[in-house]
Amino acid sequence: MEELRWKAPVPADKWEKTLSCEKSGFASPQPNSQLIGDIGAKQDEDCLHLNIWTPAKSAEEKLPVLVWIHGGGFYAGAASQPIYNGSELAKQGIIVVGINYRLGPFGFLAHSALSEENPSKTSGNYGILDQLAALKWVKENISVFGGDPENVTIAGQSAGGVSVSLLMCSPLSAGLFNKAIAESGWAPKNLRALKKTEGVTTVSAEEIGAIFLKKLKVKTIADARKRGYGNLLNAWAEALKDVPTSETNAASSSGKHVILDGYVLLDQPYKTFSEDRQLNVPFLAGFTEHDGSLFAGYMNIQTAKDYEKYVWKLFGEDATKILAAYPAGSNKEVYGALSSLLGDCLFADGALQAAKFASRRQKNTYLYIFSALSNSFEKNGLGSFHGSELPFVFNSTTVGGSGLSKKEKDLSQSIMKYWSNFAKNGNPNGEKLPVWEPFNLGTQSYIILKEGFPSGAEYKPNQMQLFAK
User: Most buried of the four, 100, 138, 440, 448, by CB within 10 Å?
Assistant: First the structure.
């Protein structure tokens, strides 16, 4: 695979014999992650594999297709994770496809030498090119599995949700999907530029690539292509440490990986959406009630003084307003304030902004807040944390590996029906389901995904206006 490292994906060689597909293919090489846990597969650079679950009995059925893009901050995760088992979701009458893509340095390294050797004169974003290649494969082959290539929904959570937003903005996505679901993930408002720009102090992606080679202790890309996985992962982690945290939120890795390359992405995604230039498809987005709790727990911010310093570093002249909206008058209040702040600025803001932009042209725009508490995590103090909706979307195991209770499975059945209905016709509503009102600029309606499925409108308007820049 050495010769294909840091290049656009190429189609697999054809075969004539029966191919055994009883086990998941390799996952992208990645560091161990407490947040991700078991990825359910061995790791190898030859990782561009798909997992397909289908209830179809023949190739003539033409069922709707949902393509799932896993999360993990663009440096971890895999389609093979047990939490993404699509067998139960497929029972709703859709085909579920989980895709892998290259991660970390394998998927997002940019360097001037790589840009020079590439016909597009760009580098980086190989992981997004992998996602596009998977969608092209689905377009060309899913009919063999009983799927409809003209009725494809892309969906993802966290980095997968960010990927959904990027694919909606990429000119390379045209004709590859018809609907989109983004769970707790949206593109940063200012992606890093590929090349150094005069007058811009932010470190460019190619400059990070140069730092990476120094950390790897090699002088050329040719030498870097000969280094092993462990060396590459360690050098990548060290290179990213040299990127000032003031340039990218310390709780989010999206801004350290995906770049504005002028090929996959021609403009900042936020600008593309604000100017109504994204793909106009039915759109469903949302976040969890406590999306920031995990990240707040991992950050070493324990005193009110440290919290105030962090906010000033992150928000600059807006810090006074932010601290007033998310106050921590004592050390005991720091975790709650930081959790709420991170949840709102990293996840709620993106989902709300995206829904507002999308709804200007797309009447089938829907917003949710996941607020259910799994029995497995009810006592951990994290609330409805980042990713806690996934066992309910897939009716699978929880993050900790246990199954859902009977009550939770009932809730999961309703959520799966919402998701599969949307995949079928762009509208989550259906028989025996509480009504999910569409989002528009007037009502700003959303549904709360918990027992009873209550509705709401205008989520935290005073706080949200602080991030709407």
Answer: 100
Which residues are within 8 A (CB) of 137 and not within 5 positions of it... i.e. 6 or more apart? 11, 50
Nearest to 112 by CA among 238, 211, 193, 210: 210
Residue 442 and residue 124: Cα distance in Å, rounded? 40
Strand partners, 99: 50, 69
Burial 177-189 (b: 16+ CB within 10 A, else e): bbbbbbbbbbbbb
First and final C-alpha spacing in the chain: 43
The residue whose two tokens read 């918990």 is 450
CA distances from 206 to 87, 126, 203, 238 (A): 41, 14, 8, 15
Structure tokens at 113: 């030498």
CA distance 128 to 165: 11
Which of these ranges, 140-154, 323-337, 339-353, 380-394, has the smallest mean pLDDT? 380-394
Our separate counts of H helices and E strands in the chain read: 18, 11
- pLDDT, residue 60, reads 82
The stretch 127-151 carries a mean pLDDT of 97
What digits encode the pLDDT tens for the residues 276-318?
A: 999 999 999 999 999 999 999 888 899 999 999 999 988 999 9
Short-list 292, 360, 344, CA closest to 461: 344
Instruction: Indicate whether 45 pLDDT > 90.
Output: yes
DSSP reduced 3-state for 415: helix
Q: Which two tokens stand for residue 59?
A: 């190739």
Pairing of strands 365-370, 283-288: parallel
Beta pairing partners, 67: 97, 154
Joined tokens for residue 146: 């009983």
CA 121 – CA 393 distance, rounded (Å)? 40
| Structural element, H or E, at residue 216 | helix 205-216
DSSP-assigned states of every residue in 21-35: -SS--PBPP----TT
The two three-digit tokens of residue 219, written as one number: 């002088």
Contact 367, 390 (CB under 8 A): no
Tokens of 306: 């440290």
Residue 379 — pLDDT band, cuts 50, 70, 90? low
Residue bearing tokens 């007058």: 199
Angstrom distance (rounded) from CA 93 to CA 147? 10
Q: What is the pLDDT of residue 378?
A: 57
Q: CA dist 308 to 247, 299, 313, 339, Å? A: 18, 14, 9, 14
**Looking at the annotation, which residues are catalytic?**
158
Superfamily of segment(s) 2-9+22-466? Alpha/Beta hydrolase fold, catalytic domain (3.40.50.1820)
